[in-house]
Amino acid sequence: MSDAANASSTETPAGGPPGALEAVIGLEIHVQLATRTKMFCGCELSFGEPPNTRTCPVCLGLPGSLPVANARAVHFGLMIGLALGSELAPRSIFHRKNYFYPDLPKGYQISQYDEPLCLGGSLGDVRIHRVHLEEDAAKLIHVGASGRIHGSDASIVDFNRGGTPLAEIVTEPDLRTPEQASEWLRLLRTTLRQLGVSDVNMEEGSLRCDANISLRPAGASELGVKTELKNMNSFRFIERGIRAEIARQEKLILGGGTVVQETLHFDPGSGAITSLRSKEEAHDYRYFPEPDLLPVRIEQAMIDAASADMTELPAARAERLHAEVGLSAESAQLLAFRGELGDYFEAALAATADPAAPAQVLANWVTGELVSRLGEGEDPASSRVRPEAISALVGLVAEKRVSVGAGRQVLDRLVADGGDPEAIVAAEGLAAMDGGEELAGIVAAALEANADAATRVRGGNPKAIGPIVGYVMRETKGRADGTEVSRLIHEQLGI
Amino acid sequence: MSATDILELTASAAAAEIAAGSLSAAELFDVYQERAAADRAAGDHGLNCFTWVAETAPETVADGAGGGGNGLRPLAGVPLAVKDLFCTEGVPSQSGSRILEGYLPPYTASAVSRLSAAGASLLAKTNQDEFAMGSSNENSAYGPVRNPWDRSRVPGGSSGGSAAAVAAGLAPWALGTDTGGSIRQPAALCGIVGLKPTYGAVSRYGMIAFASSLDQAGPLTRDVSDAALLLREMVGRDERDATSLQFPHPIELPTAERLDGVTFGVPEELTVEGIEAGVLESFHAALDRARDLGAQVREVRLAHAPHALSAYYVIAPAEASSNLARFDGVRYGYRAAEPSDLLDMYTRTRHDGFGAEVRRRIMLGTYALSSGYYDAYYGRAQRVRTKISEDFRTAFAAVDFILTPTAPTVAFGLGEKTGDPLSMYLSDYCTVPMSLAGIPAISIPCGLSRGLPVGLQVAGSAFSENRLLDVAHALEGALAFDGSPARV
Amino acid sequence: MARELSAVLDHIAKIGELHLDEVEPTSHVVEVTGALRPDEPRPCLPREVALAQAPATSDDGFLVPSPQA
To answer: Taking CB atoms and an 8 Å limit, are A72 and C66 in contact across chains?
Structure first.
């Protein structure tokens, strides 16, 4: 709960509701499907092509053109439904959503209304309301003043994107915090990526997320007035945007105001929330069944085909990593729900035929040491550390040919320059120090150099061993095995 | 052959002559091209059938070698007039509207492509009511079309140009579209044959849309055999039109001359109230001819037929209001000059570009779909439609075909009904039920009333075209209507 | 226009007389299994053709007054 709310619960401002407020969040996600062609015509999907080079009479809305639905988009829609445990509608129809805008060539969008492809389902802790198919709008580029357009700023329309197949996934308002929302969105993204139905790249726009946010007294069952936050194109922005909107609504409500239902835009730069086209908003879309398209009947054969194409989903992968690979439930879930990490881990696991270390150790190195060096959210596959390399490194450490400390240094080198662990160990002289005379000698020297610490250890203060160990590690450049060093120290101190 | 002889030939007969080598496709084309061009040049003094006329014969017809080659194709190079709303690549396709004035599509409608592939040559684009909305061809942005039987009267609509052209011998045959009667009613008012096929039988790809669930392309011809020939080459599933179907069997040319064993149903709901006395007289005489040929004629009920017009005038405008939203001045067509902002561009473009009837129907349709009214209007109308389809299915369990007059009146005067849209809409009273049910129906001329043609409508169940054409052919023979007074 | 529209609306309101509670609306006259298209590319229009009929163009795109103005 934000500071503002905490403050208010002690202050009880005039006109505000008593008690704490809870946020209620639902997400609306648009996913561009990775088909070859558009939703209703045979134009190939555009990836940065020159403007208006991927169009035809249908996606340009020329007079006389007609839509025909893409079978593969329906197939992907069914796969999404299966992955979310939704009910697949035996018969679903397309509807026209009518409004005027330059990026909408027909003056209506072909979408689905009250007979969508999928209803219900869930992912993680969040229930799914529905999944439906529709076509994407074209791209509008604001160009400012143009002598060609009298009296007004101008925009240019590029119809390449227009008609791209979209799956719209709507959740129930089951989310409660911005962090929960962004984490769940990551899970959804991983799921869709595993399915192979979309590139799910937020920066490129193949995954778009809007959030519906309302507040209500904690524990209440009725929903408050919701606002819609649009156009957030990264997980961080979504989290921050939702947080900002919750704060805005809180301030408004606790100040005695009422939330107005509207569409809002979050500016990540300034943190400001502004109203987006609220006066031009067409509330009445005059939905009616699309007469140019026939009802889609989902036959068993189509469901079977979708099932056959199903890949392992995060929950199943987590289960497998736990039960078969032997990872802890926590590690299994972390790797499964962050798809790229899981892919990388499994590649590393497979790289060594007879690994010296248990899988959990490799998992810890990947999720701990490697992730902290690369940064949260970075895909290890795009780093310089090849899966085989980290697998080999973990093996070297397990065989005690390299100490843990030295191993970390090797990993630093791998992250910076890539390469092979054995070669790095050789080149930098990081091989583990054998126990024996050399090490015993250094330990003796350490005890001498840290006589006070030695006395305190002998006197019963185990923490004082730190500087002594530190001395040895420095002298051995971290190559000594920590357990052996400690043993030698205690042996030489006679305790 | 003299030009007069040539003009006497039906399209089928001309195709046969070309195949036999006794007529060249080029000569046939030139005879009609000259007459069509003359009508276009005559302006107000002509019938105003055309919005565009080919200047020369197409290559496939012009080069003499085409003669033999043309004879090998079913339609043998016979020239065809095509309603303005069919997209014809590089040729103006305006759907009778100012908002598409001079619009040159980059592709050709599937129905027209098929006919071209079968040998038809594009003679001209015909005038029509704007966006196919009308029953008199007085709603065209390019002036009204006149009825060749009496130039002070309307030819019917919306395919008025096509009907008048065929009746006047300015084209051997023509392509039109029928949404609520727009092929059948002008065919009746002009004394020719017009067929609306089963919904889905002919691809709509490339037809500038009016009402998607009702629009169908069909032939306007001098006789039933010509209609069958043209239909045969038009039908079939098109991958570009999801609502198009593979016709279950090939269309056959009709041969029947008797009607033994055929039962006709006559619905009181469409054959008494609101029908002009002279039309009824002609209709009943036609029923007698049917009986003479051995048919049985009995009553059937179409209980919801009286509500068909109301349902139609909700559904068609509703779909049209959405179909016409694309005319916004952004990508093609008319755009208002110097718009002050986007909204101004939209409103002025559409207000100036659309005629009054189109604007009226867009408003009606928008209203019928709007939140709070959907259930009472569009939702209800689609339920009425279900009942009408059921009525026909029940009727066809008892009879083979249904007979009605095609239109409640003969051709009315120019300007007579333009002040009262409702009275204009009533022209579709007998044809609209078949459109709503998606079943095929043909109009054949069955006589004259006050010197003007009366049409007989024969409707059959879905995909009954072959039997329908046969029955119509037999009736046509017995009725022996003489269309020559209309020839210019 | 308003007068004519009223007259038409009165006429079409007749459908309000019918009892239609248990009747399904016809959303499609043709009830055939949904005709879906294989995911195969078809040729696109060359840009010049796509823009050929445009009332105003700029930089290879369709030029319109901005919605944000």
So the answer is: no
Indicate whether B106 and B249 sit together in one domain.
yes
Is the predicted pLDDT of residue A9 greater than 50, yes or no?
no
CATH of the domain at B223: 3.90.1300.10
d(CA A269, CA C10): 57
Q: Phi and psi for A8 in degrees, rounded to 5?
A: -70, -30
Q: Report chain B's mean pLDDT, rounded to a whole number.
A: 95
Active site residues of B: 83, 158, 182
- B24 with B86, same domain: the answer is yes
In a domain, B80, yes or no: yes
Q: Which two tokens stand for residue A51?
A: 């403007």
Residue B190 placed within a domain = yes
Say yes or no: B315 and B244 in one domain.
Answer: no
Crossing angle for the helix pair A329-337 and A314-323, nearest 10 degrees?
Answer: 150
Whether B233 and B323 share a structural domain: no
Asked which of B333, B364, B379 is the last residue of a domain, the reply is B379
- How far from the centroid of its chain's Cα atoms is residue B434's Cα? 14
Shared domain check, B333 and B245: no
Reading the block at residue B454, the tokens are: 């009366």
Task: Render pLDDT for B411-462 as a digit per residue (tens, 0 to 9).
Answer: 999 999 999 988 999 999 999 999 999 999 999 999 999 999 999 999 999 9
Phi and psi for A87 in degrees, rounded to 5?
-85, 130
Angle between helices A71-83 and A300-308 (to 10 degrees): 70
* Chain B interface includes C23 (CB < 8 A): yes
Are B346 and B420 a contacting pair, CB within 8 Å?
Answer: no
User: Which token pair is B257?
Assistant: 């001359």
Flag whether B230 is in a domain: yes
How many CB atoms are located within 10 Å of the residue A105 CB?
Answer: 27
pLDDT in tens, C13-66: 888 888 888 888 887 777 666 679 999 999 999 999 999 999 999 989 999 998
Residues B318 and B203 in one domain: no
Report which residue type is found at A210.
D
Neighbors of chain B by Cβ distance (3+ pairs < 8 Å) = A, C
Which helix (H) or strand (E) segment is A329 a member of? helix A329-337
- Helices A482-493 and A466-475 sit at what angle, rounded to 10 degrees? 120
Which segments of B179-303 does DSSP mark as H helices, in order? 184-190, 224-234, 277-292
- B221 touches B187 (CB < 8 A): no
What whole-number distance in Å separates Cα of residue B366 and Cα of residue B363? 5
On whether both B142 and B83 belong to a single domain, the answer is yes
**Cα distance from C36 to chain B (closest Cα, Å)?**
8
Which DSSP string corresponds to A416-471? HH---HHHHHHHHT-PPPPSSHHHHHHHHHHHHHTHHHHHHHHTT-GGGGHHHHHH
A141 in helix, strand or coil? strand
Q: How far apart are CA B445 and CA B11, in angstroms?
A: 18
Query: Which of chain A's residues have a Cβ under 8 Å away from the Cβ of C45?
Result: 55-57, 60
In 3D space, the residue among A222, A288, A161 whose CA is nearest the CA of residue A24 turns out to be A222
Which of B364, B376, B386 shows the shortest C-beta gap to C23? B386
By the 8 A CB rule, do A86 and A128 touch? Answer: yes
Domain range enclosing B17: 3-257+478-487
DSSP code, position B218: E
Domain count, chain B: 2
Query: In chain A, which residues have their Cβ closer than 8 Å to the Cβ of B109?
Result: 64
A181: tokens are: 């929302």
The closest alpha carbon to A28, from A275, A195, A255, A263, belongs to A263
The predicted complex's ipTM stands at 0.96
Give C4 to chain B, closest Cα distance, Å. Answer: 7
- Among the candidates B356, B379, B402, a domain finishes at B379
Same domain, B129 and B217: yes
B407 in a structural domain: no
Interface test with C, best of B380, B392, B428, B461 (most C CBs within 10 A): B380
User: Which of the 8 DSSP states describes residue B86?
Assistant: B
